[in-house]
Design a protein that fits this description.
heterodimer, A: MetI-like fold, 2 domains, B: MetI-like fold, two-stranded antiparallel sheet, 15 helices, globular
């Protein structure tokens, strides 16, 4: 949230175009506006064309993909979507993704919140371990965990379990979550809690009625980022699941491209769109939390 | 750059942000409030610390340990072989080939990512009213998985019906087989990886540009600097911390990134996109030589740590210059 307000309140420097506007003729102004907008139009195209093309292909028939030169489908049909949804692989993976996503989100928030409160508010031995949370994720990418976690999961009999994925993803997300929350809780004036303490409020009620409500934006940011990560993660689910019905959506989508002899492009496109759909539906509401997460913490 | 050092507002902004960093001061207390036990901070932080240690630190140490062992066959008994996995790795031409491919991949992504990131960040920085909507468009690639991005780029670069080749055909030419041509496949992979990573880069650089004090720009204009000159001599040096951070992040993401390459080309054609992570993955899960693959993994982790420390050192130096 801090990032969001910062971006909103900081007025960007006036451009030369804006400054000289008063003295220039209408024609020049139009040219300047066009020059200003060309890079922005390129940005929008660069970002959205892959999405657009995929949606269009998902609405075509298999023959039309090759036959027609038109980008738009002649006769849009949802057959590809029906085909994908009827595959047992898709429905199982969708359910797994939802459960793993929700589980990861809940567990991450539940573990990060008390830890962040301790790091933000207490002088205690072990405070220096906060450094662990800032350095480790940078030094340990998921690539480095693939083989060891696979071997450990085999030893512990933890392959093909949703709980394994939830626990692993939570471990990977906790550093970022704690780091974001510590910064946020430190912004809350301690005097609020001190005043409540004078009135006899216990630590629990101070956390419940002061800290948690005030850090709600940060908690939502963490929740959104956790769900996104669990929903999209590919490298670890690739090694931690081996049987059909246990995989999540990215893995199932990856397999789908390879298995079929003749590739079914509309179905692949429809599958891709369906994996993104939950985010598109809530995009307007979560967008600002994603921006906040990116700019305040995810790259440190 | 006397302009830079004399600036006060920017200094304050930086100092304020630095003090916001967790761990850097901030009000804390010992247990002197009502209902507060000395144990509380330990109880609160232990679960998270254990989780992170068990899931991030322990596997890496375990992997390092196992990289000194070797089994004769998959699942067989392992025996200590010292540095043999490493010495064989360094003698393997496939390893050097993968290292070269990774170098091309990382450099290509960082350069393309920085150029496009700066271009788009400067463009966005001139927008006031439509910034919110443009920013939400910008981050769209960030919300989708690497696999979904790879499928999209496969459709986009398809030889027969991809948008690119359809456009080339429109001009009466024949488009190449992008993903089947060893010379072109790496380009497509770089393109796709940059597409997925760019939102972060743009937002970071944009945040840097928006903290620049307008008075610098005014001063520069009085001195006659406009447009490109102003961007090159003033804006870019001022956002050098953000440029360093973006570079660190992009090289981390590409050096250790497997998803895009695996889903887009699987290392092919003819191993043209067989980067180090791909080499590690196929050694472990195709050849089933886990211990040898762990040696590659350790090498990647060390390389990543060196790069990170190098950049952090550079960033520190930038910090002290200011």
């Amino acid at each position: 949230m801090t990032a969001d307000t910062q971006v909103a309140t900081t007025v960007p420097p006036k451009t030369p175009a804006e400054r000289r506007r008063t003295g220039s003729s209408g024609f020049k102004r139009v040219i300047r506006q066009i020059l200003l907008w060309i890079p922005l139009i390129i940005l929008v195209l660069w970002t959205l064309v892959p999405f657009f093309i995929t949606v269009m292909i998902s609405l075509k028939t298999r023959g039309e993909v090759f036959g027609s030169t038109s980008v738009l489908p002649n006769d849009p049909s949802l057959d590809a979507y029906r085909e994908v949804i009827e595959r047992p692989g898709f429905r199982g993976a969708f359910l797994n993704s939802v459960l793993v996503g929700l589980g990861t989100t809940v567990l991450t928030v539940a573990l990060a919140t008390p830890a962040a409160y301790a790091f933000a508010r207490f002088n205690f031995r072990g405070r220096h371990l906060l450094l662990l949370f800032t350095l480790l994720p940078r030094l340990v990418p998921s690539l480095g965990l693939m083989i060891p976690l696979y071997q450990l999961a085999v030893t512990l009999g933890a392959l093909d379990k949703r709980l394994t994925l939830i626990v692993v993803y939570t471990g990977m997300l906790l550093p970022l979550a704690v780091w974001l929350l510590v910064g946020f809780i430190q912004q809350i004036p301690p005097s609020l809690e001190e005043a409540a303490s004078v009135d006899g409020a216990s630590m629990w009620s101070r956390i419940r009625y002061i800290v948690l409500p005030l850090s709600l934006p940060a908690l939502i940011t963490i929740g959104v980022l956790s769900f996104r990560e669990a929903w999209n993660e590919f490298t670890l689910v690739l090694v931690l699941t081996t049987s059909p019905g246990k995989r999540t959506l990215p893995y199932e989508l990856y397999l789908m491209q390879g298995i079929q002899g003749i590739q079914n492009y509309p179905a692949e496109a429809a599958f891709t769109v369906l994996t993104i759909l939950p985010f598109i539906l809530v995009y307007a509401r979560i967008e600002k939390y994603i921006v906040a997460g990116i700019t305040t913490g995810s790259v440190k | 750059m006397s302009v830079v050092s004399s600036g006060t507002r920017r200094g304050q902004v930086l100092r304020r942000r630095r003090s916001k960093k967790p761990g850097a001061g901030g009000p804390r207390w010992d247990s002197n409030l009502a209902g507060q036990s000395k144990l509380a901070p330990y109880l609160f932080s232990t679960p998270a610390i254990i989780m992170v240690s068990l899931l991030l630190a322990y596997p890496v140490i375990y992997g390092l340990y196992k990289s000194f062992y070797r089994a004769d066959f998959f699942g067989g008994p392992e025996e200590f072989v010292g540095f043999q996995n490493y010495s064989e790795m360094f003698q393997d031409p496939a390893f050097w080939d993968a290292l070269t491919k990774s170098a091309i991949f990382v450099l290509g992504c960082v350069i393309l990512g920085l150029v496009l990131g700066l271009f788009f960040a400067f463009a966005l920085n001139r927008v006031v009213r439509q910034l919110r909507i443009l920013r939400s468009v910008t981050i769209a690639p960030y919300i989708i998985s690497n696999v979904a991005a790879a499928v999209m780029f496969k459709l986009l670069f398809n030889t027969d019906f991809g948008l690119l080749n359809r456009t080339i055909e429109f001009f009466g030419l024949n488009g190449p087989s992008w993903l089947a041509d060893p010379n072109l496949a790496m380009g497509v992979v770089i393109f796709c990886q940059v597409w997925t990573d760019l939102p972060l880069t743009i937002l970071l650089l944009l945040a840097g540009l928006q903290t620049i004090d307008t008075s610098y720009m005014d001063a520069a204009r009085v001195d006659g600097a406009t447009g490109w000159k102003q961007a090159w001599h003033l804006s870019i040096p001022l956002i050098s911390p953000q440029i360093v951070i973006s570079t660190v992040w992009m090289s981390y993401s590409t050096l250790t990134g497997l998803g895009v390459v695996l889903a887009l080309t699987g290392g092919g054609p003819l191993k043209a996109t067989q980067t180090l992570p791909m080499e590690m993955y196929s050694t472990a899960f195709t050849d089933l030589e886990m211990n040898q693959a762990l040696a590659i993994a350790t090498f990647i982790l060390i390389l990543n740590a060196i790069l990170t420390l190098l950049y952090v050192g550079l960033a520190r130096r930038y910090g002290t210059v200011e």
